[in-house]
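I wish you would study the pair of lines that follows with an eye to the fold:

===
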Amino acid sequence: MDISGNSAVPPTSSARCWFRKSLITRRAIFLCFIWVLFMIFLSVFKLPEASENGDPLSLGILNLHKRFQDYHFGVIGEIMLSMLNEDLPFTLFLPSEAAFERLLKINVNGTSVYNKENNTDVILSRVLGFSVIPIKLRSEDVPLTREISFDSLAGFELNIMRLPEKVLSVDNVRSERVDMRRGEIIVHVMDGVIMDAEFAQSMKDDYEV
């Protein structure tokens, strides 16, 4: 009974039918909208065709994921990365170009400014030994404000800590960018060069000659 005292009139079958049709129509519009968005996604990112090794959607999402995580690291960075197997799990704490020039006097073209023999590849391979650990280590894997230690490829112990705002500190060298990728390699760009005291001194002596 309604507030006027009259008995409530039950909805007619035509009203119920109209409500069901309206609900179906809204669902259909929503599904069409999702399908249009999906087709735009396919056209923009050009997901691959089906292959024998996997279904096209999963392969496309994987390629899209890699596309956003692969970066160009400059001449020096690319030289160092070329020394590693991209199919193996490594983490590289890559000095920035500014850090290379500031601390090792190697310019953005990969040329040593003061080293008389200009053996840049030898220097970079030494730096690589100090700067790479043989595991994949993302910033989120590092505890906040608590140090963890790993041995580098050269057997040099690295003390790693995560600071607020997703910044890593490796032997007191802070990161500029984190969690970039090249194949299976995780790359963190550092505002400094990770090296032991002996190598640092040898480089300093070379500059002063």
Q: What stands out?
A: Residues 72-208 form a domain with the FAS1 domain fold (CATH 2.30.180.10). The longest strand covers residues 173-182. The helical segments are 13-45, 56-69, 74-82, 97-104, 120-131, 197-208.
